[in-house]
Design goal:
By secondary structure, the protein is α/β, with parallel strands linked by helices. Helix content is 45%, strand content 15%. The protein has a 7-stranded parallel beta sheet, sandwiched between helices. Helix 1 crosses helix 8 and helix 4 runs parallel beside helix 5.
C-alpha cells in the first residue's frame, strides 16, 4: 500500500530542459514510475531524440518540444501543445537553468539578464502557463529546481545565487496562492551534482578540492541520486508538502 503512493500511472509530466543532465534523469525516472512525459529543449532534434529514447526504454508516451522558456508566447504554445497531446498536465518541473561565474564588477548586463531570465523568469512563465489547466483539474505538482545556492552563497555566483534564492521565494508565494486548488509547489535544491553544468568546476583541481572538502560525504553527487526526491515530490507521497525546499547536497549546508 505505501509504495502505491509513489506510482505515477495516468499522470502527465512536463520537464523543461529535459534532454540532458538532471532534466533527462528526472524525465526518465518519472516515466519509469508510470507517467507520460514531455521534455523540452531549444533544439527540436534534441527534444525529439530524448523523448524517443524515453519512450523506447519505458514504454510510456513521450513528446519532445522545442521551446525557449524565457519567451512567454513560446511557453504558452508549449503548454497548449502538451495539453492537446495528452489532455492534461499534472506535474511541471521547472528544470531549465544556466550558470555564469564572474565577479560582480565583471558581470556584463547581458550575462546577468540571461541567468535571471532562464533561472527565474522562465519558471514564472511556465507556472503561469499551466495554472489554468491545473486549477481546472484541481490537481497539480509544480517542482522548481532551485539549488543549495538559493540559501547559501559562493563567490562569483551573484546572478546564479540571486536567481535561485528568488526561485525559492516564488515557490512559497505560488504554494500559498494555489493551495486551495490542490496544487502543491515545492523547490528541489540540489548541491554539487556531477552534471555538465558543473564540469568546469570538477575539471579545475583547486575548485574541485574546495568542493570536496565542503561536502560532508566527501564526493560529488551522482545524477541518479536525485531520483528518490523527485519521485516523492511528484507523487501522492508528498500530498501534505507545499512551499518547502528539499536540499540534496551531500551535507554541505549542514555545516
Amino acid at each position: 500500500m505505501s509504495l502505491e503512493l509513489f506510482k505515477l500511472d495516468g499522470r502527465v509530466a512536463l520537464i523543461t530542459g529535459g534532454t540532458r543532465g538532471l532534466g533527462y534523469v528526472m524525465a526518465q525516472a518519472l516515466a519509469e514510475a508510470g507517467a507520460d512525459v514531455i521534455v523540452t529543449s531549444r533544439e527540436k532534434e534534441k527534444a525529439e531524440a530524448a523523448a524517443r529514447e524515453i519512450a523506447e526504454s519505458t514504454d510510456r508516451r513521450a513528446l519532445g518540444l522545442a521551446v525557449d522558456v524565457t519567451i512567454a508566447e513560446q511557453v504558452e504554445a508549449m503548454v497548449a501543445d502538451s495539453v492537446q497531446a495528452f489532455g492534461r498536465i499534472d506535474i511541471l518541473i521547472n528544470n531549465a537553468g544556466i550558470n555564469v561565474r564572474k565577479p560582480i564588477e565583471d558581470f556584463d548586463e547581458a550575462s546577468w539578464d540571461l541567468v535571471q531570465n532562464t533561472n527565474l523568469k522562465a519558471p514564472y512563465l511556465c507556472a503561469r502557463a499551466v495554472a489554468k489547466t491545473m486549477k481546472s483539474q484541481r490537481y497539480g505538482r509544480v517542482i522548481n529546481l532551485s539549488s543549495m545556492l538559493g540559501s547559501i552563497a559562493l563567490p562569483e555566483r551573484g546572478a546564479y545565487c540571486s536567481s535561485k534564492g528568488g526561485l525559492i521565494q516564488l515557490t512559497k508565494v505560488l504554494a500559498l496562492e494555489w493551495a486551495p486548488y490542490n496544487i502543491t509547489v515545492n523547490a528541489l535544491c540540489p548541491g554539487p551534482i556531477a552534471t555538465e553544468l558543473n564540469t568546469v568546476v570538477m575539471n579545475n583541481p583547486e575548485a574541485n578540492r574546495f568542493f570536496i572538502e565542503n561536502i560532508a560525504l566527501g564526493r560529488w553527487g551522482r545524477p541518479e541520486e536525485i531520483i528518490g526526491a523527485i519521485i516523492y515530490m511528484a507523487s501522492e507521497a508528498s500530498s501534505f508538502m507545499t512551499g518547502a525546499s528539499m536540499v540534496v547536497d551531500g551535507g554541505w549546508t549542514a555545516r
